[in-house]
Design goal:
Blueprint: E1 2-3, E2 16-25, E3 28-39, E4 43-47, H1 66-69, E5 72-78, E6 88-93, H2 97-103, E7 110-115, H3 125-137, E8 141-147, H4 156-180, E9 188-193, H5 195-206, E10 209-215, E11 236-242, H6 246-249, H7 254-259, H8 275-288, E12 296-298, H9 302-306, E13 317-318, E14 333-334, E15 346-354, E16 361-371, E17 376-380, E18 385-387, E19 394-399, E20 407-416, E21 421-423, E22 426-428, E23 437-447, E24 457-462, E25 468-470, E26 474-479
Parallel strand pairs: 7-8, 7-9, 9-10, 10-11
Antiparallel strand pairs: 1-2, 2-3, 3-4, 5-6, 5-8, 12-13, 12-14, 15-19, 15-23, 16-17, 16-18, 16-20, 20-26, 21-22, 23-24, 23-25, 24-26
Helix pairs in contact: 3-8, 4-5
Length: 480
Amino acid sequence: MKEKDPMKDSESDGLTTTMTNTLNFGAISIYLEFFSKCFDGLGCVKVDESWYDKKIRPVNLKPFEREIINTEFILVMRNSTHKNKNEIYYQVLTTDGMALQNAGYIQGKFLFILLHDFTSNGYTGWIKHITKVLKSRTVECNVISVDWHAGSEPPYDQAIANARVVALEVTHFLKFLRESHNVTLEQVHLIGHGVGAHIAGYVGHELKVKKISGLDPSGPRFDGMPAQVKLDATDADYVEVLHTDVGARCSTKQSDVLSLTRSGLNKGEIIPGCSHKRAFKYYIESLEIEDCTFLGIKCGSYLEFKQGKCTDCGENCRTFGLVTYSKRNNGSYFLQTNSKKPYCLFQYRVNVHIGAKKPDYFGSFEFFLMDQNYRSTKSSMLEHRGFKPGKENSFVFYATVPEMGKIVNAKVGWIEGSRVGWSEGKISLCLINCKRVIDVERLTIQSINSNTIYAQEVALCPDEGITEIQSGDFQEFSVC
């Protein structure tokens, strides 16, 4: 519950008002500072109790003045007159109609607005790269990078406070474009990385744009907070969020981000790194390549996905990038990526027909596939799971590029899981008939995300009719 104290402090210079409160959580009390800081011509940044949480967001700092943050709008273009037509150049924009046109802004065309992360800037590498791709994929479009590097420096709590002023600047700029250049919000796509994704959310909360792409939105101080504090599904007609698996490949901890100081940041260094940066790399690759599609499969949880339990596509599959979907089937979509470029993996739905020699099995499969051109690829299930006798045992096989030709042969391996384990919601304890084998009678392999002539569905049967696969061994299968 909230206990309001009388106003202890009231400061007003025409810009800022402050009020202190105490929020009680049982035996714990947190001192709160509710405030409203206004910026001439932009609007106000307001903080009330909804912006506080004793664990997630115990502090909210006042943002810097807009002159310190120094938000700039940069028109990013390719120099078509240069011998290298992919050469990128920049033009800082002002809210002046003629200056905007003279800079090269194309009136009436689609607008992409790029928003960088904490400790980054509006000229960073991914900004250049994505501009080249967007310009090549779209007949005519405008790309504007929002540079707020002076406000994005450590400490993190100050940067995320400054981010709200940046959102006011972007909102103001879009209103200017709408009034002076006939830009409609249906022509606006915001793409934000890290903290930039939440800036996009703040803008979308005020102006419902067509689309927002959040590239690994920052978690510290945001995850678990109310919708108005972070990027939310209601902030645009369509919101897509690309999360990368920080825990598996990244040593950067939340505490490292929160405690980072300016002196602790090396020149040119962007924090956090690791797989957080993979988000824009995946996004750019999804726009660059045509043969392979980053296709996420809808699943109830990441654990179920890792166990291979989600394989249905159609409306249960989505990609990201320039594609926009209806909100009818919103949810969490999962996919695997390669550990190095190219990151996109080809997906195959594998259906295993298992014999009835045992009532159930617990473990995982490993595959080596070979096509008609003698090219091979391999993949393993991420985690053990339960399997039942019969035909309904499906999971997704991920293969590196280039795409496999017609599959003619497979080596199928079986790894028996612990016999004391969780299987289909039950504790499995084997006491008798504990031979560590699985009886595989047939495989069906079907392409999921192929965009080429190699899309296929093939049935494979065990060579010489040998269906048993010992745990740790492989059995060969060929086209039936």
